[in-house]
Amino acid sequence: MFGFGTRTGIELPAEARGLVPDPDWKEKVKGEKWYLGNTYHFGIGQGDMLTTPVQVAQMTQALANGGLLCPLSVLAENSTDGNVLIGNNPECNQAGVSTDHWNTVLEGMIGACSTGGTAYPFFSYNAVKYDSQRSPEVNFANGAVACKTGTAEFGGEDEKGHRRTHGWITVMATFPELRPGSSVNSATTLSATARTALSATPSAQAEQATPLKMKTVAQLSDDELHQAWSTKAEQLGFPSKVTITVLIESDEKVPYREGSTDAGPIARKVVDFLRIL
Fold first, then answer.
1. What CA–CA distance (Å, rounded) separates 224 from 206?
2. Helix 192-199 vs helix 222-236: angle between axes, to the nearest 10 degrees?
3. What is the per-residue pLDDT across 6-41, written as a single tens digit (0 to 9) for each?
4. Which of 153, 177, 192, 211 has the CB geometry, 3.0–4.6 Å to 163, for a possible disulfide?
């Protein structure tokens, strides 16, 4: 339903399919019967399932959209008026998530990013965005971040029976202050340097924009990068919802990665960059 076990079709080479194990697969590949315990493990995200970061991002996108699964693309289709076409893709399909189930998942994911959850880098963020008296849908629409952390075991077991782990987090967020017509727009939330650039006269803006065009992205300072991104977002329109998926691979130096400790801080930095706190 969410596209696991198949390629998403994103325009990137050598995309993997991943794996959704079932009784036939286990008997054919492992020569073993599928037991009820396999179903339990699978139901909580363990077992033999394999997925790619972009597949997890696609699942998260569908959850953010209330169950509407849309194709992923690294290419922006522009309309005749210069705006990016978002949200009316005829290829989008409902994944089949009931409203009750969606609200339950949304409540759990907001809880994971709130005090008492697992994604501690977002506790302070949701502390000012989350209201326990509101429904999950209203909290999400008002800017509360929803997320899920996790680890992915791989490879063989060590002498203690442990496998190395990669660290996961997938996040969905809204940014009401960046929506058209809101009292707070992108220009008022920019850093000092970017605010100066955007509020300057046209000739001054042109003078300040020239150095940006002469630099590569890697050469831009944080303020310049914010300025360039904010200008682009203002031109094309900021999406009402954003999903972020981070996978931090382990290595010989750090064999055990965790979603909260390793992936979570990076996702928080991305959210802060988008929101420009």
1. 14
2. 50
3. 999 888 888 999 999 999 999 999 999 999 999 998
4. 153
- Banded pLDDT at 180 (limits 50, 70, 90): low
The DSSP string of 96-160 is: ---HHHHHHHHHHHHHHTSTTSS-GGGHHHHHTT--TTS-HHHHHHTT--EEEEEEEEES---TT
Q: State the CB neighbour count (10 A cutoff) for residue 199.
A: 11
H or E segment and range at residue 246 = strand 241-248
Cα–Cα distance for residue pair 33/30, rounded to 1 Å: 9
Report how far residue 103's alpha carbon sits from residue 109's, in angstroms, rounded to the nearest whole number.
10
Question: DSSP state, 216?
Answer: -
Rounded Cα distance, 18 and 172, in Å: 22
pTM above 0.90, yes or no: no
